[in-house]
What does this fold into?
Amino acid sequence: MRTVQRKTAIVLLAALLLVVTACSGNANDPDNAAGEDNGSANQQGTNTVVNDDEGEPVTIRIMSTLGSAEVPEDDPQRAFVDVVEEALNVNLEFIAPPASGYESQLQLTLISGDLPDVVFFPSEDNEMYINAVNDGVIVPINDYLEDADNLMAHSYEHSWSALKTMGDDNIYAIPRTSITRNDGFTVRKDWMDNLGIPVPENSEMSVEEFTDMLHRFTFDDPDGNGKDDTYGFGSFVDANKILQPVLTSELGHYGWQAYGGGEYDYTLPEYDRNSDVYANVLGYTRDLYASGVLDPDSPINDNKTASERFERGITGVVRDFAGYVKRKEDALHKLNPEAELTYLFVQGPEGEVKGGVYGTGIWGVWAITSAAEHPEKAVEVFDYLLSDEGWDLVSYGMEGTHYTMENGERVYSPEAGTMYMQRNIVRRHDDPDFFLHPTSYTEADKELVRPWIQKAVDTAVVSLDQGHTPAAAREPKFMDYKLTWDELTTRIMLGDLPMEQLGPIRDDWYKHGGEAYMEQMNDYIRSTQ
Amino acid sequence: MRSLKRLTGFDVINYGLIVLVSMAMLYPFANVLAVSLSSYSAYIENPTRIWPDEFSFAAYREMLSKPILWSSYLNTIIVTVCGVFFGILLYIVTAYPLSKGYLKGRKLLMVAVVFSMLFNGGIIPNFYLMRELGLLDTLTALVMPMLFTGFNLILMKTFMEHIPEELEEAARIDGASEPYVLFRIVVPLSKPIIATLCLFTAVTYWNNFFNAVLYIRSVDKWPLMLYLNEIIRSANLASTSADGNLAEQGAFDVMPETLQYAAIMVVMIPILCVYPFLQKYFVKGIMLGSVKG
It folds into this structure.
């Protein structure tokens, strides 16, 4: 009995100790970054408030994915930071977790309460970003944008609309702009020459001409090696492992539009029960796959692998950004010095080139957090980078550090590298030349590709959804059926299911939350028109 | 092995399957080695090769010239050495008293140890802990979480329980203090289990990168496996992060495959050289802590 009492007393004492430990406060203020400063060699001081009036630099902590495995702390790529700091009287501290763990660290940082001043989110519909806005962790920046002339001038209008996350007039982030384009196709010009296929002067082909070219690339030995070892087109799967159709806009698919004749005012061809557009899109890819024109590895290749197979001379056409034609040509020359590339567009049903572009022109957003003591300074940094002076720095780097001028041309040093850091903060929406990396393109090269890039920009038709995700899309049964949809439509493209199955698949989609989805999306689009 | 004329059909199938499985397991290694010793154009021509073409050490020269590789190596070595040293010390001073049957509360303490093996605070509480201790972005954050595990403690305790008490009593009779008994009698007799735990712990620290993903922000504190992970995943990240934007996929720093594979070999070679000699100790070590008849 005494033993039992003693044991009970010990257990209760241990439990009491645990409770006392758990409930005791921490002597360290969680908001005091001194503890973190002691442990971090990356920090250049504590996060104390600095009096800007006395001319002391304002410290701005920026958390982003700009760290690269290749960029040490003292790399010249960080040289531009000194220029920005001097120009704006700021002290920029970049918190750059490893890219593979960025989202984990971002999530932990957001819930820890120890917030940097600026945080990068991968997209404007990222779950963490939306939650952070809802929780008040991210602050609206409308007041600070009034003085940000460069940001307003060089970003898409619809990007700002997409950043009104709460549905009111408050803007919650700065967009990292990516130029909306209707990308065409990189094509083996030497194969065209070998087969006597003329290169159109306006870089445009009809669907029939394009299809014929693909067939000839597959069956007519375009490389002249006597072997049946080529395919016309190399497709790939996207990040969600969904096979990308060969033609979409070229068959009349322009994203969310008022196509007319549908059950709803605005629709996506996938879900339009009165339209053949999506069936045509699936059918075109299916026919190419069945006839052996589509690279049989397409359903398992990602974009990089598809690109490699193109560079190996296995495929003759890939959809790609026009700015990478030269890069691909240089890669091809390692195996085949005679290879030549050109860039083509395929006309749509109305005989003109135009393409539906999804998204909001945004590739990631910079959000100012509630911990920022000088949010206006943070906005000023991004605004400065889009000014003429800052943009020159972003686009070309620094004379003396990254390049020297010789006979009026920039000559880059090997140490300049890709200038990854400075070129991935902000971009101008009206400067597609940005994507022509200055270390890779001479002016002559730029003259060649510029018309293609401009055509891709001019023929872009923006999808009216603007990247919006209605609440219905987050319902479990909708999300579950999305997986089924992806699987079944891919099987249709691969010929595993007949095209007639598309109707029942659509009907099931409507039953699994699709109806609510369409209604909410229509309401949203109407509100933006 | 039986003489050839005594090989049965079953033996032939058996050996055949073993050879096939072995080749399947060796193929990735051969491919990585071959590509790392080939030129990039040779890789593009045939990415699946198992024999180098246009033999070249250029990828190794370039990889070995990267300062971040050496800083990562140094970080990993520091973390591994510190983790092993302090971990073993902790195991010794904890397992020894727990191996004594007369220790009051011993059973309760062992229950607590086993409990800690089954349940963990989780990622978020651990992150908070590291932050409150001021250990974020430090190498200590890579050492501490794996410093002490219940499993290893039980192995050492079980081994120490089998050390004859008489040896310790004899030492005490001669005037030895407890620390003397521990470090001059018990520890030398525990060399097999200490060596085993050194091995286990060293391999665990060497291979771990998840703690670095959570706690490290500075490139100069990356351990080797994190650096390797970043290199290898850069291509995948380019594809997923660009979210279908073909222009943005080119915005990423992606190393050519020859360089990636050279990085894999550079990271693997030390372990490859050491592991075959230590493999038998792994198996032996697991058994050391088991109950003896």
